[in-house]
Amino acid sequence: MTEHSQPVPHHIAIIMDGNGRWAKQKFQPRFMGHRAGLKTVEAIVKHCVKLDVKVLSLFAFSSENWRRPGKEVSLLMELFSVALKQQAKRLHKNNIQLRVIGDLTKFSASLQEQIQQSQLLTANNTGLILNIAANYGGRWDVVQSVQKIAQKVQSGELAVEDISEQMITDSLETADIAEPDLFIRTGGEQRVSNFLLWQMAYTEFFFTDTLWPNFNVDALDDAIASFSNRERRFGRTSEQLQEQTDA
Predict the structure, then answer these.
(1) Residue 63: pLDDT over 90
(2) pLDDT tens digits for 113-158?
(3) Alpha helices (H) along the chain
(4) Interacting residues of 66 by C-beta distance below 8 A, sequence separation 6+
(5) Structural domain spans, the chain
(6) Nearest-5° angle of CA 37, CA 144, CA 74?
C-alpha cells in the first residue's frame, strides 16, 4: 500500500470496466460481475472519503450501453434501483452527497423518482461528492450545454460573440465542480469511451489491466502515486512552474 505524503487528487473519475470478463473467468453470468463490482464501489468510496478526495465520478451506464442485450440492461436497471435503496441512507449518514448525471428521461418513472429522492436526501451533505454517470455521454453533455446557450441567444439574452468556453463549462452536468485531476480506467482498455470529454482536457490518465471487481484500495493508491509523480503544466513549461513554486 502506498502512503500519501504527496497531494491527493481533488477529483477522481473512473471507468469501472471488466465486470463481464470477471464473471466469465469464473464461469458465472455477466450480471454476477456487476454485483461484484458494486462491492468494489463501496470500498473505493470509503477510501476516497478517508483520503479526503473531494469528488469521485463513476461511469455506471453510458448512453451506448442500451445496445447491450435486453436482459443485461434490465438486470442493470434493477441493480441500480437496489443499490440506491441500500446505499442512499448510508451515504447520507457518512455526509456524502450523491449526484446522478446524465439524461435520466430514458429511465422508468419509478427509477427517476428514486434517483430524485436519493439526491434530495443527500443534497446538503458537505463531504465527498459522488457523481454517478448514468445514461451519460460526453458528447450529449456538450450538446445539452450548447442547447441551453442557444436558447439564450434565441431569446436575445446573449449575443453570439459573447459565447465562451467558460459558458459551455457552466452549462455542463458538472458545472459547479472542479474538472477531474485523475482519470482511471480498469480492465485493460485505453480509451475514454465518451466520458466527461470536455471536462478531461487536462486530466492525467491511468490505465490498469485489473478488472473492476478486483480493483482495491491498494490499486487506487498506486494510481494516486502515479498521479503524484507527474508534472501538470497546463500548457506552461517546467521552468515556468518552478518559478511559480519559488515565488
Answers:
(1) no
(2) 999 999 999 999 999 999 999 999 999 999 999 999 999 999 999 9
(3) 19-25, 30-51, 70-93, 109-122, 138-154, 165-169, 217-228, 238-246
(4) 73, 106, 135
(5) 11-138+178-246
(6) 35
This prediction's pTM: 0.90
Q: What residues are labeled active site?
A: 17, 65
94, with CB counted inside 10 A (0-12, 13-18, 19+), is middle
Number of H-type helices and E-type strands within the chain: 8, 6
Predicted confidence at residue 2, as pLDDT, reads: 45
Q: Which amino acid is at 140?
A: W
Which grid cell sits at 3? Answer: 502512503
Summarize pLDDT for 202-225 with one digit per residue, the tens.
999 999 999 999 999 999 999 999
Q: How far apart are CA 203 and CA 195, in angstroms?
A: 12
Q: For the domain 11-138+178-246, what is the CATH superfamily, name and number? A: Decaprenyl diphosphate synthase-like (3.40.1180.10)
Query: For residues 179 and 176, what is the distance between their CA atoms, to the nearest angstrom?
Result: 9
Higher pLDDT, 174 or 70: 174
- Residue 56: beta bridge partners? 12, 130
